[in-house]
Design a protein that fits this description.
Blueprint: E1 37-48, H1 60-66, E2 70-75, E3 81-87, H2 103-120, E4 124-130, E5 134-137, H3 144-158, H4 171-181, E6 187-192, H5 200-212, E7 216-223, H6 225-229, E8 238-241, E9 248-251, H7 253-278, E10 281-286, H8 291-305
Parallel strand pairs: 3-4, 3-6, 6-7, 7-10
Antiparallel strand pairs: 1-2, 4-5, 8-9
Length: 306
């Protein structure tokens, strides 16, 4: 897949639904397209004017072109607002030059599929990108123009190499800012490897902030399970480069595998525990699997738990 704007690649998700579990705006739960027409910002369609009704919503510009009276109809704006948040730090470019999709590419394709699915349900979607600071934050909107704008931002991510920029992760700081910038109850979907130089408790505090503000949170924990968690490198010396600060170190992975895997698994287990305590839906996203497989399995599992 080279161009995520080609939405035909996401049509395999047409028979699935992405249902909000909780009250996201205060009065409707789950799939919630409103049957009411009124004074919303989202234009729905034109219909012929019926004699005797109010002329307030007649489209006079269309009348000038067609000499026929049409009334604008509006769809009451969606109750669900979803914000997709993607970690764009340099560590998300792992594994670099390996022929395997990177963590960032996995996140981008998954996000594009979710935008497609949510728009099909007439739900509003916003996008935030962050590393050590917020790089992009759009409001959640429903329009096709807005969706194309989001696809454009995602395409730019695929065409940008962050591996040599040494972009650090400060999820512990940025997620607090994002939590405060989303003013209505929303569904927040976060894609990150959750590698942060900050204290572990500070990262957990940032996740808790999102829940404290009554947002429903789904964390796609994006990782290369084979290399990053199990440390399955061959028995020979390697030069390891920290993508976020450029530091290099050379050693044989076998010499430190037990100690490394123990530390990493302890952190991942703590992350699972905290997500469970905060009622955050944690999805372990292994980039060695196709994003379609991971996303499809999660959506089916989620629908069965509703």
């Amino acid at each position: 897949m080279k161009n995520i704007i080609d939405i035909q690649q996401f049509q395999q998700f047409d028979n699935l639904e992405f249902v909000a579990r909780g009250v996201v705006e205060g009065f409707i739960t789950g799939l919630h397209r409103s049957p009411f027409h009124g004074f919303s910002v989202e234009f729905a369609e034109h219909r012929l004017y019926n004699r005797g009704e109010s002329t307030k919503h007649i489209d006079w510009k269309l009348f000038a072109r067609t000499e026929k009276l049409f009334v604008k109809r509006y769809e009451e704006e969606t109750n669900l607002r979803c914000h997709i948040v993607i970690d764009t730090s340099s560590s998300m470019m792992f594994p670099y030059n390996s022929g395997i999709q990177t963590k960032l590419a996995f996140s981008v394709y998954s996000s594009a599929a979710l935008i497609y699915l949510l728009r099909k349900q007439r739900d509003a979607v916003g996008l935030s990108l962050f590393s050590n600071e917020i790089e992009l934050h759009t409001p959640a909107r429903l329009s096709l123009v807005h969706a194309k704008l989001l696809y454009g931002h995602l395409n730019n991510l695929l065409n940008t190499d962050f591996s040599k920029d040494n972009k650090k992760t400060k999820a512990s700081v940025v997620l607090h800012q994002i939590a405060e910038s989303i003013h209505q109850r929303s569904l927040v979907i976060l894609f990150s490897d959750m590698f942060d130089s900050a204290d572990t408790e500070e990262v957990f505090s940032a996740l808790q902030h999102l829940r404290h503000n009554k947002h429903e949170v789904i964390l796609f924990h994006v990782k290369d399970k084979k290399l990053e968690q199990q440390f399955e490198f061959k028995n020979r010396p390697y030069k390891f480069v920290d993508l976020e600060n450029g530091e290099e170190v050379k050693f044989n992975p076998v010499d430190v595998r037990d100690e490394y895997t123990s530390a990493v698994n302890d952190y991942f287990d703590a992350l699972k525990l905290k997500c469970g305590q905060y009622k955050i839906d944690l999805v372990e996203a292994d980039i060695n699997d196709d994003f379609e497989k991971v996303l499809h399995a999660y959506l089916i599992k989620r629908s069965k738990l509703m």
